Amino acid sequence: MKKVYEERQRLNLLAISKMVGAPEDIPNDATTEGKIQSISKGASLGLARRNAGLGDLLDKIKGNLRTEQKAIMSFNCSTLTQLLDCVQAARYMVSLYPMHCDALALANAIQCEEDRDAKSTG
Fold first, then answer.
1. How many CB atoms lie within 10 A of CB 91?
2. Which residues in 92-107 are b (16+ Cβ under 10 Å) and which e?
3. What predicted TM-score, i.e. pTM, was given to this entire model?
């Protein structure tokens, strides 16, 4: 999961840099003549070039989010089918209703309990 998060952070930073653009892409003169002069100098071409790859970058971010969701669902499924018995899984799901199962939160809660038990006995 750490790799998925790091990759998404990298992709998000790239997307932000493409969306913001460079200062030279912003015309200094907001008048009509200034805008025409800016276009004639090709200042808007830099921004257009950067935006050309933005769609592909956003598709990569979507793919990264799908990968994360698949990993979370796999972890939830494994928790319910392999770690908990049928009664434990049923109680867990009923206690969470109407929320969804969050196996990572369950694992963190178990770890906190184990840490608390270790401190009290140690």
1. 11
2. eeeeeeeeebebeebe
3. 0.62
